[in-house]
Amino acid sequence: MGIYSHLVWAFLKIGALGFGGGLAIVSLIRDSIMKFTDMSAETFANIVAIAQVTPGPVAINTATYVGYKTAGVLGSAAATFSVAIPSFIMITIIASMTEKYKNSRAVKGAFAGVRPVTVGMIGSALITLTIPAITSADRLGASFIPESLESLPVDPVACLICIATAVLVGKYKKSPFVILIIMGAIGAVLGV
Amino acid sequence: MLLELFVVFFKLGAFTIGGGIAMIPILRTAMVEDKKWFTDDEMVDIIAICQGLPGVIAVNMATYVGFRKRGFLGSLVATFGVILPSFVTILVIANCLDAIGGSGIIMGVMAALRAAAAGLVAVSVWQVGCKAVNGPWSAAAAAASFVLIDAFKINVALVVLAFLAIGVVIGIKKEGTDGDL
């Protein structure tokens, strides 16, 4: 098989079988591309690090980057579209069926069963995202904050940004877009 | 409407760092408060479906919302909108990583946005939690699924399937499972 058909097939499978979104899909990508490329584990780790700090869905970022590294712009298009196609088909089917059967007892029960799991999944994602965000070795505003704070196990500025974002968006209903732009600007001024 | 769908999801793709789950509060604000396309309860079900099915959560959400609003074409436009910013950003970065990788300003923006994304996910837990947990059964199920996924590292697919099955069985046996089982 050519490299494109390898990419398309691998990412179709990832899109169809990748439960749990984001980072769970990233580990599927790693396992499957190692079979047909010679990408090193370190290169892949760098790609994932970049995918997590650039805007957009982490899995899409990783797919685009891996596709680009293995087969250029066409490769990135192949990987990105292939990972999205299974979702597209499944969700379209489910969306039309739930509308039709949403008052059936089985569907209502299914929703009642799965809804709480959503909370568990987001809770788990919260831990996965928060720990690296507040314990990074590169401290925000390292050149401004007093040295006595450098020995803390967590980045105090990152903690403040995290809490401030949660309070402003969650409690005071500020626009998340505006808050993200403000926090990004603060990061630009402070640097690392 | 098609243009509106594209713009909403393009902004979602362009502004959120941290992936689909960090997008939830932003999507909720846009869908429930600004556009009034869905109620809060519908939104929770949309999130449950998009997380429970395989695939990229952001793509699932875009497809679902797009389909509900404008059918097949709507889902195509919304999905394209949420993917496009990633695609462009990553291609640019892949080509000039060395030039920007060491910049303190860029790194500072990224570090701040990562911390902010964690804050947004905390808001998601709260918002979805308030809607999804409405009785002793759902509270126990939320706690149990968190422990299974986070502490015991059980495959998310298995946890979703197990709770889905429990829900269907109880739902068929009993009337009125709109809220807690």
Quaternary: heterodimer
Give the termini distance of chain A in whole angstroms.
45 Å
Biggest interface and residues each: A-B, 105 and 114 residues
> In what range is the share of β-strand residues of chain A?
under 5%
Unreliable segments of 5+ consecutive residues of chain A = none
Give the overall form of chain B: globular
Tell me the overall shape of chain A.
flat
Q: What class, by secondary structure content of chain A?
A: mainly alpha
Number of helices of chain A: 7
Cα-based radius of gyration of chain B, to the nearest Å:
18 Å
By secondary-structure content and strand pairing, the structural class of chain B works out as mainly alpha
Number of helical segments of chain B?
Answer: 7
Q: End-to-end distance of chain B, in Å? A: 37 Å
Q: How many beta-strand elements of chain B?
A: 0
Number of separate strands of chain A: 0
Major sheet summary line of chain B: none
Helix content of chain A: over 70%
What is the residue-averaged pLDDT of chain B? 87
The SSE order of chain A reads HHHHHHH
Provide the number of structural domains of chain B: 2
How much is the radius of gyration of chain A in Å?
A: 20 Å
Describe the model.
The complex is a heterodimer of chains A (192) and B (181). Chain A has helices spanning 3-17, 22-33, 41-53, 58-101, 105-135, 156-170, 176-190. Chain A is mainly alpha-helical. The radius of gyration of chain A is 20 Å and the shape is flat. Chain B is mostly helical and 181 residues long. Chain B has two domains: 2-132, no CATH class; 133-181. Chain B has helices at 2-15, 20-34, 40-52, 57-101, 104-132, 136-151, 156-173. The longest helix of chain B has 45 residues, at 57-101. The radius of gyration of chain B is 18 Å and the shape is globular. The chains are: A mainly alpha (192), B mainly alpha (181).
